[in-house]
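Supplementary Data S3. Sequence and structure tokens for construct A.
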Amino acid sequence: MAARVDPARGVAAAAVLAAGALVTGALTARTARRMASPRKQRATAVLGVDLAGGTIRFAPTRDALLPGRYSFWFAEGRGHARVGAVLGVDDDGVLRELLGVDAGDLTEAREGRFNGWMWLSPESFGVPYRSERVQTTQGAVPAWVVPGGDGSRWAVLVHGRSSVRQEALRAVPALLAAGRTVLVPAYRGDGEAPVGDSARYAVTDAEWVDVESAILHALEAGANEVLLVGWSSGASIVLATAQRSRVREVITGVVLDSPVLDGARALLARGEGVPEPVARGALSLLTGPMGRLLGADGLDVRPGEAADPADLAVPVLVLQSEDDGVAPPEVAHRFAAARPDLVRLVPFVGARHTRLWNLDPDRWEGALAAWLDGDRPRLERLSAPEPASARTADPSRRAAGRRATRPRPAL
């Protein structure tokens, strides 16, 4: 005789399954939104400012303890200061060098946030520059032009997602020293361009066309050759430009800082802390029809690397932190290993995503100069992996007591 099934139990089991599916679906959607949105930095409290002595004291947050030099934003983003080396860490907080205040009253600041920009415009370098408009297929976008050399060799600098042109200014002094005229354009989706002002993850398959427009602008101004430099997702944009542009024959090299070479891997990293099936489900949502509702309209994060190393035709310099929490370093190493004839990777230890220059500007600029000069012995020394002991050392201990040199006022 067949066992009787209690209808009430069946209904209860179905309800449990339905509730579980709803919870999983809600968690997946929430994870997708988090993956598609810029990460919000936690504020760091300001404990004291000594303008005359050139120091500032912070609460001991992770950002405050990082070695190097950084932008510090306060007054809800209206104030900006530049901070340098960690001078000491004690019960009273973290004492850092204060390199300068560009906007706002720092003495009134109670808290703020760090980022890697350092400078707000080319005016900070004390050299002539021009504000121009680059004509793109979507309309005119703002750009800075900083003349250098004889005007025949240009560098086009491309910032990453959720950022703007200021992110690229750290490279300007080194490129001017190398005899390059520097062009720093906006592009669609960054808030300065005429279209696409979403704060969501919006790197698509179209931004490279705007970089091509910047190259055409340089050619019209007298350029004979162009170097492309990109940060984060801007690195994948310049790679696409080098491979697909109709004027790619004038591109003589590509520099990639913290490159997002695998968009899917980068997004999955943003889902850290949730079960992998949920993170992968969130990725499927973002790349499917629901992506528009979740803030990822036009998102192109196909599995695999954004650029196939086999398609490279120009030399590439990769600057990659072994501690990058956004762009997995193993992807960059695999990319470089696939084309040792064209790709040179210089590793950094302890740097945050796109903050390699901030941690060690001498190493960053030295690698760029050696690569541009074709100085293989020096570049090979820089390309050698740093000792494991350096990777595990406490950054605050490495930085304590070390004063940073002040930025060059002019070139």
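Construct B, processed identically:
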Amino acid sequence: INQQTQVKLSDGMPVPVNTLTFDGKPVALAGSYPKNTPDALEAHMKMLLEKECSCLVVLTSEDQMQAKQLPPYFRGSYTFGEVHTNSQKVSSANQGEAIDQYNMQLSCGEKRYTIPVLHVKNWPDHQPLPSTNQLEYLADIVKNSNQNGAPGRSSSDKHLPMIHCLGGVGRTGTMAAALVLKDNPHSNLEQVRADFRDSRNNRMLEDASQFVQLKAMQAQMLMTTAS
């Protein structure tokens, strides 16, 4: 984890999350799946609340969550230390029920915040999504939740989407790069990859098949804008 871009809570405690930037501008917060300990989950929730993340995007498939016994912290009601959560499912009618949407209410003392959650259930580790259209569709949803009350481009680590998969490099990097393309389809993806690696670690966007899908999404977008 790059300590230069590591996110810190208001009390100064660092969390295992980085701010991904491209061309000097913040794109998203990126991390690995929070550890299944009360402290780690409390810190994760505090970060979502304090940074007023525009949305939470969980790219870990249901199978992988079960296999690795990962906590389904974004659905249901929990108390993690000082933070209380209450998550309501909004819909799962998207893309053949591959995406569940929730609204998660967070409260900590006097602070309250509701964050939209997207859980993408059909994205295998180290592989692309089943279709390029789904990647673009996802980027659209994330971008739209950005505009609902949060600026799409913030100059700090606040009001950004928080994205994680399992390790926070492949699927997470791909999703964040898709957001960059939505902002500007002419963006240089090699430069996006290099900037993300500077922001987090050298493994960002390391899976070739995922990078190929980003290139396909870019080509599709440029064809649409040209026609």
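Residues 189 and 215 are 8 Å apart (CA to CA). The radius of gyration is 16 Å.
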